[in-house]
Write a structure and sequence with these properties.
The chain has a single domain, classed as 3-Layer(aba) Sandwich (Rossmann fold). α5 links the parallel β5 and β6. The longest helix has 28 residues. A 7-stranded parallel β-sheet has the order 3-2-1-4-5-6-7, with helices on both faces. Helices cover about 45% and strands about 15% of the residues. The chain is built from 8 helices and 7 strands, in the order βαβαβαβαβαβαααβ. By secondary structure, the protein is α/β, with parallel strands linked by helices.
Length: about 260
Amino acid sequence: MGKLDGRVVLVTGAARGQGEQEARLFAAEGARVVVADVLDDQGEAVAKEIGNAAYVHLDVSKEADWTAAVAAAKAAFGKVDGLVNNAGILRFNELVSTPLEEFQQIVNVNQVGAFLGIRSVAPEIAAAGGGTIVNTSSFTGLTGMAYVGAYAASKHAIVGLTRVAALELAAKGIRVNAICPGSIDTAMSNPAQLDPEADAQAGSEALDELYRKLVPLGRVGKAEEVARLALFLSAEEDSAYITGQPFVIDGGWLAGVSVL
């Protein structure tokens, strides 16, 4: 018996990174998974490998794409009763040097994408008798971090959206929570993973060296660990009395400053 037997969960940004691991874990726990992304070849491959899954093209910043994705999910599996708003982008820039176009792009994907996901999928979850929404914020959604101003602003907004959605949707049987990862070893934080000429393992080792100095647990996080938190918040038997909350998964980074 899986924790998500009988569930149908749409995961955005599921072609790679955290979203891919969430899709794989949810399927292993019995869910039928809608793998959603703009990376069509990779997303289709993930859905095929998972087995009981369907791929849909979804630019989360576009309302029409959400409408089509929900329709495709229902056509494939008859309902949707879970959503993981995972898709996001990160750019590094000094705040006063950030072009408006770059700021708006980050907000459109990270913040507007989560809003459109909630607005598009929540009615379907309610119609299915209830379910869960997990939004991906960041530990920078709870604190500041230099050179990621647009990203941090969008992730702060997701925490706010999560709390409001939890209040408004509770009566419809929908729980809404947020996960707030620190640095996770994915292509977002380790671009070497995207370069066939680069040594991705060396990039991972460099990240580990950096975070040995910054993070109390002494290492960068793994996408699989984030996926397990998303599973916990999506499984009724584990988190039935939890809604409206941000959950930090950062190896203790946000706890404070270590003097060692």
